[in-house]
Amino acid sequence: MSSTHRATDATGQPRRRGRPRAFDRETALRQAMEVFWERGYEGTRLTDLVQAMRMNPPSLYGAFGSKEKLFREAVEFYNSPDRSTTTLALERPGPVRDAVEALLRDNARAYVDPETPHGCLVVLSAISYSPESEGLRDLLRSLREQDRDRLRARLRAARADGGLPGSVDVDRLASFLMSVLFGLSIQARDGATLAELDGVVDITLASWDHLVDTARGG
Amino acid sequence: MSSTHRATDATGQPRRRGRPRAFDRETALRQAMEVFWERGYEGTRLTDLVQAMRMNPPSLYGAFGSKEKLFREAVEFYNSPDRSTTTLALERPGPVRDAVEALLRDNARAYVDPETPHGCLVVLSAISYSPESEGLRDLLRSLREQDRDRLRARLRAARADGGLPGSVDVDRLASFLMSVLFGLSIQARDGATLAELDGVVDITLASWDHLVDTARGG
DNA sequence: GTATATTTTTAATGTTCACTACAAAATTAA
DNA sequence: TTAATTTTGTAGTGAACATTAAAAATATAC
């Protein structure tokens, strides 16, 4: 046998010294995310978090730092590029209309997923706020603006390559689509069915088609 | 002179015995409403309320009962029929399109009124919630549903008297308009200007016109 | 084995929360 | 005047909040 060996974990990486964690960090983060998603940042108590994450406060603080840091990490997890419905829809190659339809319809479906709280965490979990959590409100607003900016960029790109007529007012159109999208979150949270949300998407897409037609001079 | 006289207040009604209130109840209620509007129910502390209302806690409790009762009264005040932009718009006589345009444009203007917090109190002040304030969340949801139902009724009435083609799907159309309206609240809260919101309204009304035209078989 | 490092559980900590007891103040009624 | 009534300001109350101190537990390193 060779010299002294080091302990390794399942992935072959050397394990840290000391007592090992009794929980999976990502699983716990997902559980925390769902609580924040349902109740919002200020409506969530530490008691709710430790119950959902099945651990005691010191473990939570050891792994995540504070309630606010945990929330920020939960938002990051929710909004990660490979998981964000909006990002995935807008990065989809092909006609811009397909991307916009995916933006609306995939989000609508996600908003009423029976496995998760209804509506979008980024829209719902820190809209009204006390001054202490103003930083979190700003974080979520910047993420909403990021989505809007990505939509604008996608529309501008389409206009540049002929997928959209040059006379289309991209910023106005993006604001309109974001309004509908934000509204879907409220309605999903209020108990709307997928059929209802899809009905809204149908009208929105009909509106898109007509607007593009008109701008083409149809 | 006649027999013993009773004290009367400015409106001629007999004044109550005891030390008179040092504040105007409706003014205080309006001040409380603005705090709730800005910060939401759970984000508002009693300290914030008594500061804004310029009184001490016992006066607040004597006049309004509790934080929750004060919130309910503030919502009632905000949403009173003679003050609710939505109710006023939908009760407006004349073409249904004018009512819908007023619904969107008057609300958009109110949402960015520099004199008040931006967006709609009914949409923003209790969206995410801890179980203790679930009753308030339900109250606001029922008010949102009430507005949607009033819109549906107005559209149905228009369809009945020929103002809308019979083939229009009233419920779907109402959901679409409510989605846009809810979305305007989010965007107003995020700092959108009246011009941006009016742009969204322009597209929505163009969509309305096209939808009605199509249903007419145009 | 012993030392070191990290997480665990238990049990607190100080702060902030909505709310209130109490007595002084201000009014009407007789 | 005196009694009755109501609101006021001061100064609390207990409960719930996010956070942490301390020591036992569990792992690696040597």
UniProtKB/TrEMBL annotation, chains A, B:
Keywords (A to Z) from UniProt: DNA-binding, Transcription, Transcription regulation
Superkingdom assignment: Bacteria
InterPro entries in the record: Homeodomain-like_sf (IPR009057), HTH_TetR (IPR001647), Tet_transcr_reg_TetR-rel_C_sf (IPR036271), TetR_C (IPR011075)
Region (Disordered): 1-21
A Pfam short name: TetR_C_13
Chain ranges of the HTH tetR-type domain: 22-82
Cited PROSITE patterns: HTH_TETR_2
DNA-binding positions: 45-64
Protein name: Transcriptional regulator, TetR family
Origin species: Actinoalloteichus caeruleus DSM 43889
Taxonomic placement: Bacteria, Bacillati, Actinomycetota, Actinomycetes, Pseudonocardiales
